[in-house]
Amino acid sequence: MGISLVDHYDSFTARLIEGSNKILNATRKVRANFMVCGIGVANVIELMRNFDGSGIANVVGPHFLGTLNKNIRVYVAPDYPANEYILGYKGSSMLDAGAFYCPYMPIASTDLIMDANFRGQRGWATMYGKVLLNSKMYIKGVITP
User: Fold this and answer.
1) Closest to 12 (Cα-Cα) out of 135, 124, 145
2) 27 C-beta neighbours (distance < 10 Å), count
3) CA gap 48, 32 in Å, rounded
4) What is the number of other CB atoms lying within 10 angstroms of the CB of residue 25?
């Protein structure tokens, strides 16, 4: 009798724990508590024995998939490369953040403009700043099929 897929994916769990411990070693205070991944990584995670799914089905776009190892929240981003993932830490205050996204002009639209063929066009704009302050709080990984 061969090895099951669930047993095979336990080696990926070990890699995630190693990544979380690298974040702990680099920051000396936190471990990973979230993961953003592509569809290929999500396929692997959903087969892992220590994964607890969110129970939400038929979701379109980026969404919360579930919890891994009881403390890593997993998010799937369909536009992210399929076999890549990011482990990171997000704290409860701005002092515990490694990256910031700061919009200073919310989404604004122009008036609807009609052309000679009665096709309406509208413009959209926003302004924001983003900065990575502590890269030690994040680790990027790739799985190979």
Assistant:
1) 145
2) 14
3) 18
4) 10
The rounded distance, in Å, linking the Cα atoms of 101 and 89 is 15
Question: Per DSSP, what are the bridge partners of residue 53?
Answer: 66
Per-residue pLDDT of the chain (145 residues; tens, 9 = 90+): 444 555 667 788 889 999 999 999 999 999 999 999 999 999 999 888 889 988 777 788 899 999 998 899 999 999 999 999 999 999 888 888 899 989 998 888 989 999 889 899 999 999 999 999 999 999 999 998 7
35, burial (CB in 10 Å: exposed 0-12, middle 13-18, buried 19+): buried
Write out the DSSP string of the chain: ----HHHHTHHHHHHHHHHHHHHHHHHSS----EEEE-HHHHHHHHTSTTEEE----S--SSEEEEEETTTEEEEE-TTS-TTEEEEE---SSGGG-SEEEEEEEEEEEPPPEE-TT--EE--EEEEEEEEES-GGGEEEEE---
Contact in structure between 89 and 139 (CB atoms under 8 Å): no
